[in-house]
Structures are given as C-alpha cells and as structure tokens.
C-alpha cells in the first residue's frame, strides 16, 4: 500500500475520524470458535466470527438481503455466517453462497465488505482505509520490534488481567500517539521526580519511534550514558502505540485506540509482564496493578483535551511535536464530508 502524498511543509495537521491504518478491536479470547459477535467501529456495523479452520473473519454486519444484523442471532455453518432473519449464508469473501428456499441460485450480485484481520500475540487488529487501499504490512511484533532488550526476555501471557478495555471515551487517537513526543508530561501527570529526556528518535513511512530516559543521570541524546530506566515508544500509524519499559521490571504495553463514531473511541490496554522468579498469582496481580495504574491519569487528560493546531510550544519540545505531526499527516486521507477533529485552528 502506498500512503497518500503528504501535504506541503507549511500545511497544518488536520485530523479527522476516518484515519487509515491497523486498529485494535479486541483480543483473541473475545472471539471463541462458534460464536458470532457484533462490533461497531468507524461508524460501521460489523460482524465477527471464526470459520471452520478457526480463522477470524470480520465483515459488514448487515445482510444484503433485507438488512438483518448478522451479529445478533446469527450462527456459523462451515465457513459461513448465517443471517438470523432468512438464513442467507455469507462466506469469508463476503459472497452469498446459499439461500435456503432457493438453494440452486445464490445471489451473486450483492457482497458484504470484508475487513482485513490480523491476529498476533492474542491481539485482534482490523485494517481501515476509507479509500479502499490494502495494507502493505502487518502490525509490529511487540516482543521484537519495540526495543532490542526485550527480544531475549520471556513474558507472561496478557490474558486475563493484562487485557483492559475502556469503552466509549471522548478522545481521538491522535492525542494518544502524541505521548511519544511529550516527555515533559511525565513530571506533572505521573509524578516523576526529574524531567525526562529524549535518548533516541527516528521515523519511517509506517512508524514513529522515541526512547525516553528517566532520572537525573540521563543526558539528552546519549542513550548509553548509564544503565537505567527507559521508555521506548513505537507508534504504528495513528491507532497503535507500543511501549517497552525497561529497568528492574521489564513491561510491554500496547495502547490501541480505535474510533467508534465521530467523537468517540474505544481504548484497549494490553500488558505483558516479564517472567521473574517467584511470580505466583498474587505477585502477578500486584505487578499488573502497578503496571496499569497510570493510564487512567492520562485518560482523564485526553478526554477533556482540546486539539491545538498549531500548538504553542516551548523550544525544548517543539522539534519532536513538529516531526510527529508532520509524520501523522499521511494517515489522514482527503475524504469529502468526513468529520474533522474539532479544536483550535482546525
């Protein structure tokens, strides 16, 4: 997939509610074999089910016959989802394959939209692009793609305590990914003692990465100045922010923020804890509580935040924000009639 050409250098970032990219819609445990589940994202009604081979399929949710919702009362037969209204069968390609009262003549003209799905490490992603472009890559591997030190470590499964969903939040995913350009907020929102500093930062067409050092011994842009606490953040598009916390306890966290409708998103927090000696269930619950305690503080800010463009930036933070917002433009294709993210300068 080739992303849309970036706007001119002087253009402002104009986020809207139909961004392109991979977005999380749940966890693998949410979709057991034999179940049919309704979903709603990007203003669309969807249906999710597993075919006979266990592959998760996500299609538009309304039957193309008379519009019955496949996700409410539908069932799985073989590789197809069956409409509860009149029993029409729809296969993973979105085609009608069987009409019970007209078995020799399925409707070949009507099709359901098929949403590309990817499952990795217990996380379920869908691809969204309002222009119909196909994904050109897969979502990152949180164990190998975020920080080199995580590759050799072993982690507990995220289920069940490391799977937390925040539903119907009044926030836009752009506000979440901008955390990667904002080390200063850790001093005020999370109470760290010293202002964190950038150690590394890079970007390519699909990713924006920063590594932040915590503690007075760190020196800006000197990632080897000591062995201490760091936070590595890899943004993959607008909807996915992967983080690796290093130090005495190594933790991996994925924040997935997915628009439901204009003005509303669901947020998914997926946490993997490093395997350590003595990790009995009580210790793991305590560690998980510590790893997830800070996100509500961010949500309290994001759900009341106004998007400022251009923002008034201090010189110490200006470059990172400008680079991230310039990179973000590619994820917002020009679409007629799409609702913008309201805010100053929008």
Automatic annotation (TrEMBL):
Belongs to the cholesterol 7-desaturase family. GO terms for cellular component: cytoplasm; membrane. GO terms for biological process: cholesterol metabolic process; lipid catabolic process. It catalyses: cholesterol + NADH + O2 + H(+) = 7-dehydrocholesterol + NAD(+) + 2 H2O; cholesterol + NADPH + O2 + H(+) = 7-dehydrocholesterol + NADP(+) + 2 H2O. Residues 22-126 form the Rieske domain. It comes from Mycolicibacterium hassiacum (strain DSM 44199 / CIP 105218 / JCM 12690 / 3849). This is cholesterol 7-desaturase. It is found in: Membrane. Its main location: membrane. Signal peptide: none annotated. GO terms for molecular function: 2 iron, 2 sulfur cluster binding; cholesterol 7-desaturase [NAD(P)H] activity; metal ion binding; monooxygenase activity. It comes from the Bacteria. Its cofactor is Fe cation.
